Amino acid sequence: MMIAKGFVASLLIGAAFIRSGQTAETLKIASFSTVLTEIAQQVGGNHVSVAGLVKPGQDPHEYQPTPVDLEQAADARLILLSGKHLEHYLDKVQQATGAKAESLAVGDALPTLEMKADPDEPRAKEAPNGMIDDPHWWNSVTNVERATVIVRDALIKLDQADQADFEKNAQTYLAKLAALNNWAKRKVAELPRDKRKLVTSHDAFQYLARDYGFKIYAIEGVSTETEPSDRHVAELIDDIKNQRVKAIFLENTLNPKVSREITRETGAKIGGSLYADGLGNGDGSTYEGLVRHNISTIVDALK
Ligand SMILES: [Zn+2]
Fold first, then answer.
1. How many angstroms is it from 163 CA to the middle of ligand 1?
2. How much distance in Å is there from the Cα of 173 to the middle of ligand 1?
3. Residue 62 Cα to ligand 1 middle (Å)
4. Cα 222 to middle of ligand 1, angstroms
5. pLDDT (tens digit, 9 = 90+) per residue, 226-269?
6. From the CA of 253, how far away is ligand 1's center (Å)?
7. How many CB atoms lie within 10 A of CB 46?
C-alpha cells in the first residue's frame, strides 16, 4: 500500500516537473530534500520548476542518485541540499554538475546540534571526538523558517526580476510556519514536562526536542544504516521501564521489528508512526501536515 502510494506520488511530481519545465523562463531547481522541495515550490511559485530528486517517503540516509537524477541536477541552475553531511553522495553530484549550477547546502547555515555517533556508522571514523552533526534540522519549525529565508534570498540572487513575487510568497509561507509553530507550542503544553520523553526508531528528533522540551531515547543512531546492538536495546528497555514511558514511536521509513520487541519487553505501547526524515505520503505529504501529525501523535500517546 505504501509502495503504491509512493509510486503515484513520484508520478505526480514527475508530471509536474515536465509540465512546468516546458516554460522557457522558469528557473530550474533540483532538490535533494523533500522539505526544501516544498519551500522552493512555495517561494518560487510559477517562476521556478523544482525537480524533487529525493521523493516523499524515501529514506534520505539510504538514497543514492540515479543517472536520471544526476542529469536533472546537471540541468538545474540551483541545487538544494540538506547539508550537515546528510548527502554522502555529494561527490557524484559535483562530478555531474561541474561548476555550472549553484549548490546551496541550506542546513549548513543553520545552528547545529551535535550527537554521539554510533561506532558502527561510517561517519564515526571521521569524527575524532565521536560527535557528529545531527542532520535532521527540518524537525524544528524555527529552522524551516530560517531555511525559507535562505532559499528566498538564493532565488532573488538568481532571478532579480521576480524579487517582489519571491518576497511576497515567502512572507505568506513564513506566516503559515509561524502559526504552525504556535499551534505546536500550545499542543505540547498539554503534556506535563515530566512526560516529555520521546522513544523513537532513530535519533531524528533532537531539534524538535530542543524546541519543545523533550528528552530523546533513540533506538538507532543518527543514521538508519546501522542496526542497534543488543546491549543498547537492553539499556533502552531499562530506561523505558524506569522512566515509566507510556509509548514509543515508529517511523514511516523504518522496519518496526526492534520497536515491537521493546514494547513486548516493557509494556509500553506503540504510540504511532512519525515522519522523521522529511515529507512522506498521507498526512506528511506537506510540511504543515507532517508537523501536525508528529506533534499530535506524540502528545496524544504520552498524555
Ligand atoms: Zn534520519
1. 34
2. 25
3. 10
4. 6
5. 677 788 888 889 999 998 999 998 876 556 778 888 899 999 99
6. 9
7. 13
- Measured in Å, residue 158 CA sits from the centre of ligand 1 at 31
Instruction: Give pairs for 265-274: CB < 8 Å, separation 24+.
Output: 265/237, 266/237, 266/240, 266/241, 268/199, 268/240, 269/301, 271/246, 271/247, 271/297, 271/298, 271/300, 271/301, 271/302, 272/247, 272/297, 272/301, 273/249, 273/297, 274/200, 274/205, 274/249, 274/250, 274/298
Question: Ligand 1: distance of its center to the CA of 1 in Å?
Answer: 22
Alpha carbon of 19 to ligand 1 centroid (Å): 31
103-149 pLDDT, tens digit per residue, is 999 999 999 998 777 665 666 667 767 788 999 999 999 999 999 99
pTM: 0.86
